[in-house]
Amino acid sequence: xxxxxxxLGATGLLAACGSTQPGVSIQPSGDPQPGGTLRVGLTGGxxxxxxxxxxxxxxxxxxxxINLYETLLYWDDDYTIQPRLATSVTPSEDAMTWTxxxxxxxxxxxxxxxxxDDVVASFERITNPDDxxxxxxxxxxxxxxxxxxxLTVQFRLATPSAIFDDALAQYMNTIVPADYDPENPIxxxxxxxxxxxxxxxxxxxxxxxxxxxxxxxxxxxVILNFDDEDALVNALLSTQxxxxxxxxxxxxxxxxxxxxxxxxxxxxxxWLPFTMRVDRPPYDDNRVREAFRLVIDREQMVEQxxxxxxxxxxxxxxxxxxxxxxxxxxxxxxxERARQLLAEAGYPDGLEVELVTAPIQSGAVEAAxxxxxxxxxxxxxxxxxxxxxxTFFGEDYLHWDFAQDFWYxxxxxxxxxxxxxxxxxxxxxxxxxxxxxxxxxxxREALDEDERDALIAQAMEIEYHEGGYIVWGFSNQADAYQNxxxxxxxxxxxxxxSGYEFRRVWLGEEAR
Length: 512
Known about the structure:
Layout: H1 4-7, H2 10-19, E1 37-43, H3 59-68, E2 73-75, E3 81-83, E4 86-91, E5 97-102, H4 116-126, E6 142-149, E7 152-157, H5 164-168, E8 191-197, E9 201-206, E10 220-226, H6 229-237, E11 243-244, H7 252-255, E12 261-266, E13 274-276, H8 286-294, H9 298-306, E14 310-312, H10 335-344, E15 351-357, H11 364-375, E16 380-386, H12 389-392, E17 402-404, H13 412-419, H14 434-445, H15 449-466, E18 469-470, E19 473-475, E20 477-482, E21 485-486, H16 496-499, E22 506-507
Parallel strand pairs: 1-10, 1-11, 15-16
Antiparallel strand pairs: 2-3, 4-5, 5-7, 6-7, 8-9, 9-10, 11-20, 12-20, 13-17, 13-18, 14-19, 21-22
């Protein structure tokens, strides 16, 4: 019943939903109740899906990682760092050593206690120079991880880092046993693996050893992959799933007319950029990159792609960062200037390009279509090449000349470490700017907040003028769920369904 099979009924189900009279959502009341199975539908998975703690890429990968494993710190619903497996993480005065006090009584899925040795082994695995994992770039300053005693770990750095706690809160930097085997995944998370079929479904059961009293409330969590958004929405309307993530924002008003369904609409710093490789023609000429940024009508893009449920961007990520340079002028569409820049770059008659897109995130394909329409006014012919998510994240991922991607909320330095530094694991634009790199390095070491914010603003200004990203907007995160699902709240991280924190979700009596 997964994927395209459900899409066959799209028109009928959506029409039925639209004809339903508006109703009042009825949420379960009282204290959380234990038991039941939560069935969650997501898109974006495929044959390349992984259950490895340290290599999440797609949407379903991230959802699995957050529920199977845990980090020392984490970002809460307000995008503030909070303790998780560590009760505290404190820096030395020179920010060269960070000390983590581990939470006592934490056990892995197999009942073994989590100790400092497991934390040391986890970070050694992530930063292994022969096989670095996704979080390695955010830990580039880490020189040595040392177990002081059973519940105390020291992170000794090669260079000072005033924001090392940010890296410890990233969902890919999770703690696993010292003898971790990704073929038999063991973590400390609220759920443990029952079965995993890439591109189809993952089944998890309650971790009876979970350290948080009472959580998780669910007996079972099932994550189902769907090929497209129509199939995803139809699965919810036909009650084949209980909750879905990343609904098309254009469907918010339609789904709200169904009295069985509740909508979770969160403001985030999540972005869906166009990516231009600065080392490949024609994008190796900054005049071309600037022209591409100027052909976009950002208000129209947000309205058409996000149905107005978002805010316009200014070609910079990390809008919640204290160092964000608000003084930079907001870019707006300027077709005449775009044509002029293209002519100066040697394209007086315009140019023809290929844009690779895929349903990797809600709105991605629609954004590509709107961009193609807008760019045509400046003499740019955009040939859209649509591939499936598996192909997009396959062997050519990070090699497309002109494509798209999606990123969740991050502050500037951690995001730069993931995508904008030469050593970043997802440097899809091949951005390597010596002055920018130096400013990021200095900002990372700056203990004074005002100094750090000033350095960040300078680095962001360089990327604003010369970078390979087109950041046209920040989307709200919209999810939908049956009224009997409780415990979901707005979340600024950009991750679906309250940051995939299903440990706190419970079901009303009618669903258990």
